[in-house]
What we know:
The structure is a homodimer.
Chain A: H1 3-10, H2 14-21, H3 29-41, H4 48-55, E1 60-65, H5 73-87, E2 90-95, H6 100-109, E3 117-120, H7 130-133, E4 140-143, E5 154-157, H8 159-172, E6 178-182, H9 188-203, E7 213-215, H10 220-232, E8 239-242, H11 245-257, E9 267-271, E10 285-288, H12 291-307, E11 318-320, E12 323-325
Parallel strand pairs in A: 1-2, 1-3, 3-4, 4-5, 5-11, 6-7, 6-8, 8-9, 9-10
Antiparallel strand pairs in A: 10-12
Helix pairs in contact in A: 1-2, 5-12, 8-9, 10-11
The structure holds a DNA duplex.
Amino acid sequence: MNLSQLAKELNLSISSVSKALRDSHEISSATKKMVMAKAKELNYQVNPFASNLRKQKSKTIALVVPEVANDFFGPVISGMESVAQQKGYHVLIYLTHEDMQKEISIIKLLQNGRVDGIMMSLSAQTTNTGHLEELKEMPLVFFDRVADHIDVPKITTDDFNSGFMATDHLIKNGCKRIAFMCISQNLSICKKRMNGYLEALKKNKIERENSLIIPCIGDHEENKDSIRKLLKRKNRPDGIFASVEKLAIATYEICEELKLKIPQDVKVICFSNAQTVALLNPSLTTITQPAYEMGEKAATILFKLIENKRDPFLLENTILDSKLIARDSTKSKRKKNQNVL
Amino acid sequence: MNLSQLAKELNLSISSVSKALRDSHEISSATKKMVMAKAKELNYQVNPFASNLRKQKSKTIALVVPEVANDFFGPVISGMESVAQQKGYHVLIYLTHEDMQKEISIIKLLQNGRVDGIMMSLSAQTTNTGHLEELKEMPLVFFDRVADHIDVPKITTDDFNSGFMATDHLIKNGCKRIAFMCISQNLSICKKRMNGYLEALKKNKIERENSLIIPCIGDHEENKDSIRKLLKRKNRPDGIFASVEKLAIATYEICEELKLKIPQDVKVICFSNAQTVALLNPSLTTITQPAYEMGEKAATILFKLIENKRDPFLLENTILDSKLIARDSTKSKRKKNQNVL
DNA sequence: TTTATCTACTACATCGTTTTCGTGGATTTT
DNA sequence: AAAATCCACGAAAACGATGTAGTAGATAAA
């Protein structure tokens, strides 16, 4: 069922039917009613490709994320999809699986007009961003894992401050030697979190120790190996600041293996959005990011960008607050239970 | 940059260029090389809408899921996306948020040829399936939450058997009064899991008790209320079989609140794919579904269906095995640690 | 020599919408 | 009454790619 068949049924021209369906003022309201009724009756649906081709718009956006089996990206996607659904947009999803080559080929794919805009979070292995700089005309927003030097809207949490808070929290609970674990050397979030960590050390007059900064860029077993080595050292750390959930899980596993008690022997804090952290043994102190809101915000800004490309205030970065939720994995002997800061 | 501009640059006709790019035998290899080179040089990309319109194919599939902030659907999506990426397909994602009305409107949206096929998992609130029966011509596969009476390929795990195993496991560990909690009265997975539960009771000569079958179809707080009431009864259950992770979490929370010990006072088993279940306090016995494989399988079958609609063997249902992983939440006094069954 | 077959290309219709530019008739303005 | 404006609609040209149906020119078969 297309416009021309519908027009024939109605004894009208194609253009009149088209206009009637889009509620044009050129068509009398009587005719509009007839057309609408017939269209409903025959279940007419606009052909999206013809329409997209003609209008040079797709009402579709792309979401490019490293992975989705993850308690952070899940709610982010949910937030984005809600906004998109409400705005009548469609969402194409692409996973980079943390692989820069995949990221590059996905971005190439998106340069042919298939989408009106892109929301993305960088892969951990992305070391240069030439592929993104070529997207000059394409509305683009970054969320969470951003490329700082690319001049597009960015939605992040305050990673520096979160890193500072987390480290400071460990120190306040008695830690003297704190290890920092991160999944990438390239990601801005990692750098910022680390700078927050370093700043907290400095403020508390603790000397930086490079051997306590552990890159965990391998698979789960490799990361466990790094952590095992770390915790088997003679002067092992008494606090661990993991920047992603899976590293905290690995830490718990290694502590069990080495019969180290959390928090007595090692305290652990971690960025995480999992629902189960409060039920872990011991419950895990986390920095929790407003994931759903981040998704909503990113989508909202992208749509503004699509609809009104040159609005300069859009380029301001949006920084959302994370929460430190203290639980048992960082509890010191003297302190009682703590709550949300 | 489109075909006609490219043709002008090359002093060739549009059709020759088009054919050259698609490696047609009508074009000499010398010409093909020229065209390819020029296309690369000028960064020519096929306009997907023109192409889709002409070919009446979109190389795009839709994924319709209840939610994504979830340890099951995350890996499923990952599996699907991998297969799609490899096959050169695009994936549109739509969330129903467990809402039948949203599901209906999403399906309506997809009837205009935007996608070549649909993979879906029903919303928990979907009570009738008229909207899906209208999809007669559209390649469709169900995964996990299927509509049994619709004659399309279905990829599931063996829910009856899983329900049986879970219940039998509880009984073998000493439970006499086992509650069954499910998120929907409609979903086939719930019915099958419940039938497995009932069959295990029968086999072990335990009488069915309807007050132990608890529908948990509300939000988190409502579900917690139901569980609280359940566990406050004089003759409370000594075993709980939760069919989704969030119900197990709610159970843990209520047990803590009521000072009930797991597994001494109540044993808990649950369907879950979370990475953290082994670290919970106590570690949670789970039935774990092969989520990633399910996604891969569903996508693979959908592509076969798209490419070769009338292959009858495709209609056979695919049933994957789940694993029961025994942990501390179901441990009986006499038994030692148990392992994968 | 005539006819058939290839080869390597081109012209053009088509996919289904959207939108610009008309147009004939009615209504209003001068 | 002539001119201007409006109203409600239609014709046709895009949008860009694809594929059918040709067509010259060259080679092969009859």
